[in-house]
């Protein structure tokens, strides 16, 4: 797979694992640190800085944002999978790049603000984590809508061990994912947790044997991509709103989105298909 290329199977229908099919170029973008492709209606983005264990420098985070936004604009793509390599999802931020910067420099660059762009992606985003997901890598996984892990995955926020704190959403998202006591334990000590602990604590949705992680994640992504895109995006927006709204405001927001689905043709199709005992044919409208 060439850097910067996006190879595709068919752009409609569900994912058929193991199928060989023609591929076509969808973008001429020349990415240096990531690889992208499309499998049916699923976009796949792989971080690819093997010499640095996929450490996240500014060039890499910029490429991740650009690729996610490109996928998000593509109406043939209904879900996105973000992954790394066998050894590391992302071992953290690139410390060599930031070690000698001063306060004025990191403030001017608004270091970490790229996460706001990731949070703004409307298409469901799923992390498939193998190996290290530490510091910025853990924060990147938490910024996704769902995270799955291989049995060899390790998660941690070790920033205190190098004289700083999580700055890409770690103190906020980790608390919401696993609760205050466990978040404090990880952040104040910098210790790592295993994939099994991450699943027990609710940081990841499931753990798979390493060789099954990507196929299982792609299969889940394909199931999501096969549904009505506007409906799935509304459901994602409603769940995400729960992190920033109080219960009463969140329920009102959910109700407004629920009522809005009745303006969609897909709502009519879905409910009538259920009544008629047939498969729905989504038009994404």
Automatic annotation (TrEMBL):
Asked if Membrane is a keyword of the record, the answer is: no
Q: Which GO terms describe its cellular component?
A: mitochondrion
User: Which GO-annotated molecular functions does the record name?
Assistant: enoyl-CoA hydratase activity
Listed EC numbers: 4.2.1.17
Q: Pfam families under this entry? A: ECH_1
Translocase: is it a keyword of this entry?
no
Which SUPFAM superfamilies did the record assign? ClpP/crotonase
**Keywords in alphabetical order:** Fatty acid metabolism, Lipid metabolism, Lyase
What GO biological process, any one, is recorded here?
fatty acid beta-oxidation
Enzyme superclass (EC): lyase
Q: Which family does it belong to?
A: Belongs to the enoyl-CoA hydratase/isomerase family.
Q: What is this protein called?
A: Probable enoyl-CoA hydratase, mitochondrial
Biological source species: Cyanidium caldarium (Red alga)
């Amino acid at each position: 797979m060439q850097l910067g290329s996006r190879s595709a199977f068919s752009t409609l229908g569900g994912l058929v694992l193991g199928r060989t099919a023609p591929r076509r170029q969808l973008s001429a973008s020349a990415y240096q640190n990531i690889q992208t492709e499309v499998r049916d209606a699923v976009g796949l983005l792989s971080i690819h800085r093997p010499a640095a264990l996929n450490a996240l420098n500014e060039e890499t985070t910029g490429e991740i944002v650009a690729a996610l936004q490109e996928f998000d604009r593509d109406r043939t793509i209904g879900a996105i999978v973000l992954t790394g390599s066998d050894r590391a999802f992302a071992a953290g931020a690139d410390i060599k790049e930031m070690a000698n910067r001063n306060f004025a420099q990191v403030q001017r660059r608004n270091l970490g603000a790229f996460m706001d762009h990731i949070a703004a992606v409307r298409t469901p985003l799923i992390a498939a984590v193998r190996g290290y997901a530490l510091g910025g890598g853990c924060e990147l996984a938490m910024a996704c809508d769902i995270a799955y892990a291989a049995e060899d995955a390790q998660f941690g926020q070790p920033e205190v061990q190098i004289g700083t704190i999580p700055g890409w959403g770690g103190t906020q998202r980790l608390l919401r994912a696993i609760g205050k006591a466990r978040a404090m334990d990880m952040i104040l000590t910098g210790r790592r947790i295993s994939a099994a602990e991450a699943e027990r604590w609710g940081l990841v949705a499931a753990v798979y044997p390493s060789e099954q992680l990507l196929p299982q994640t792609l299969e889940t992504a394909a199931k999501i991509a096969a549904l009505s895109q506007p409906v799935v995006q509304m459901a994602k927006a409603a769940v995400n709103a729960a992190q920033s709204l109080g219960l009463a405001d969140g329920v009102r927001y959910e109700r407004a989105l629920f009522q809005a689905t009745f303006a969609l043709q897909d709502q009519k199709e879905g409910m009538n298909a259920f009544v008629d005992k047939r498969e729905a044919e989504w038009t994404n409208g």
